[in-house]
C-alpha cells in the first residue's frame, strides 16, 4: 500500500492519540487545581479526542482526493457499531430536550461529565 508522507504523519498522530489517552489521561494530576481531579483529566481527554478527530478528518480528506480507500473501514457487521451509534442518538436527543442543554452538552463545572465527554470517548473508540 503506497502511502503519502502526510498520511504516514497523520497515522502516527492517531496512534499517539489513543496511546496518550490510555497512558497520559489516568496519570494527569493538576496540583494547583482546587477542583476534584476529574475535570482536568477530562479536559486532557477531550483535547486528545479533538486532535485525533482533526487528524482523522485530514487523512480521510486526503484519501478521498487521491482516490484511495482504506482497507480497514468500519462496517455495520462490526459488533459494537450499531449500539454505539444508538448511544450517540440517545445522547443527542436527551441533550436537545434537556432543561439545560448547555450543561447537558458540556457537563457541570465540577465534573464535566456531559455529552461532549461521552462523544470524546466514542471518538477514541472509533478512531
Describe this structure in words.
This protein is mostly helical and 127 residues long. The chain has one domain (5-126). It contains five helices and no strands. The chain has helices at 5-27, 38-66, 81-96, 101-106, 115-126. α2 (38-66) crosses α5 (115-126). The longest helix has 29 residues, at 38-66. The radius of gyration is 17 Å and the shape is globular. It starts with a helix and ends with a helix. The model has no long low-confidence stretch (mean pLDDT 88).
Summary?
This protein is an all-alpha fold and 127 residues long. The protein has one domain. It is 68% helix and 0% strand.
Uncertain regions spanning at least 5 consecutive residues: none
End-to-end C-alpha gap:
20 Å
Structural class: mainly alpha
Average predicted confidence as pLDDT: 88
Main features:
127 residues, mainly alpha, 5 helices, 68% helix
What topology emerges from the helices and strands here?
Blueprint: H1 5-27, H2 38-66, H3 81-96, H4 101-106, H5 115-126
Amino acid at each position: 500500500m503506497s502511502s503519502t508522507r502526510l498520511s504516514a504523519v497523520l497515522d502516527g498522530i492517531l496512534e499517539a492519540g489513543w496511546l496518550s489517552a490510555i497512558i497520559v489521561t489516568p496519570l494527569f494530576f493538576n496540583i494547583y487545581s482546587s477542583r476534584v481531579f476529574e475535570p482536568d483529566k477530562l479536559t486532557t481527554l477531550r483535547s486528545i479526542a479533538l486532535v485525533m478527530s482533526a487528524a482523522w478528518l485530514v487523512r480521510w480528506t486526503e484519501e478521498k482526493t487521491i482516490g484511495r480507500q482504506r482497507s480497514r473501514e468500519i462496517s455495520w457487521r462490526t459488533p459494537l457499531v450499531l449500539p454505539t451509534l444508538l448511544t450517540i442518538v440517545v445522547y443527542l436527543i436527551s441533550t436537545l430536550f434537556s432543561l439545560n442543554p448547555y450543561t447537558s452538552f458540556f457537563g457541570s463545572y465540577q465534573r464535566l461529565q456531559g455529552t461532549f465527554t461521552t462523544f470524546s470517548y466514542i471518538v477514541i473508540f472509533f478512531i
